[in-house]
Design brief:
Strand content: under 5%
Mean pLDDT: 85
Number of strands: 3
Structural class: mainly alpha
Largest sheet: 3 strands, antiparallel
Low-confidence stretches: 273-284
Helix content: 40-55%
């Protein structure tokens, strides 16, 4: 069974036999494409009729790691069930692997996801009259624009900013390098910080290439970034438990919710899996850049 043919037939079924509205159909198809992409990435391109209940449960756990809200996960499960019910009733499959599919019980609570309007509130609370104000704004914009880990942010180097190409190079887990596209808003705020604020800092030897510095001219600590974000959340009365990692989940969630290709999101986050096929290890830079520009709200 071919994924594209099965999804197209399901599309016709939803429109003609169930009479669903265009938006509802598009939502179903978008979610099924996520499952298709997961199979390409993690399941050696298994066709829909070869998936088992365990495979579908693995998919739900995997998609949750992108920061997808429980309500979105529930919708995803509903769509998968409808798809397999259609395949079963139309005699294209002799069993329904989704019949016992349930909402996953995730062992640890994922950080809250914040949205673009909440980002705006946090930014509006920054006191730009203070030198660290512009630095903090650039930090918030960079975390949200690129989905960086806090360790990647505090170790970001000026020599790794390729703003002419709309990319930055970051050093991830295991000292592995990756290129991440960056939007114009973040580029603007980093440039303002570098050209108007950082140039007046007495930079200590060994920290000349670090983008973000404290008042003593040294690299920021992880704790300092946590403190900046916590203080801003308290200032605007944001009733969520947020941290630098929240911006990473929010970055991924925004892209996935809006229909971005999961392979591109996985590459931008620097996630790895031993079962990922080599063909998806190095994606084209323009593909990553166009994904960010198309789906990120601040690109």
């Amino acid at each position: 069974m071919n994924w594209n043919n099965a999804i197209q037939a399901f599309n016709v079924y939803l429109r003609l036999e169930r009479g669903l509205a265009d938006n509802s159909v598009e939502s179903y198809i978008r979610d099924l494409n996520k499952l298709k992409q997961y199979c390409e990435l993690e399941k050696s391109n298994l066709s829909p009729d070869k998936l088992t209940l365990n495979d579908l449960q693995d998919f739900i756990h995997w998609i949750a790691e992108f920061g997808l809200m429980p309500s979105s996960q529930a919708r995803l499960i509903s769509g998968i069930r409808s798809f397999y019910k259609y395949l079963f009733l139309s005699n294209q499959m002799n069993y329904d692997p989704s019949e016992l599919l349930q909402q996953p019980k995730i062992g640890r609570k994922l950080p809250d996801v914040i949205h673009n309007n909440e980002i705006e509130k946090l930014i509006s609370a920054i006191d730009l009259s203070k030198p660290e104000g512009q630095r903090n704004r650039a930090i918030i914009e960079t975390l949200y624009a690129c989905g960086l880990r806090v360790s990647e942010l505090i170790n970001l180097k000026i020599s790794n900013l390729y703003f002419n190409d709309d990319f930055i190079k970051v050093i991830g887990k295991g000292s592995k390098e990756r290129l991440v596209p960056i939007g114009q808003m973040a580029i603007k705020q980093i440039n303002i910080y570098l050209n108007e604020i950082r140039v007046h800092v007495d930079v200590k030897p060994g920290f000349e290439d670090f983008v973000f510095l404290n008042r003593r001219g040294r690299a920021l600590s992880r704790v300092m970034v946590f403190t900046i974000i916590k203080d801003l959340a308290e200032r605007v009365g944001l009733k969520k438990n947020i941290s630098p990692h929240t911006f990473r989940h929010s970055f991924a969630s925004e892209l996935v919710e809006r229909g971005a290709d999961l392979r591109a999101v996985q590459e931008m986050l620097g996630h790895e899996s031993i079962t990922t096929t080599e063909i998806y290890t190095h994606l084209d830079r323009e593909f990553l850049r166009s994904t960010l520009l198309s789906y990120h709200p601040r690109a």
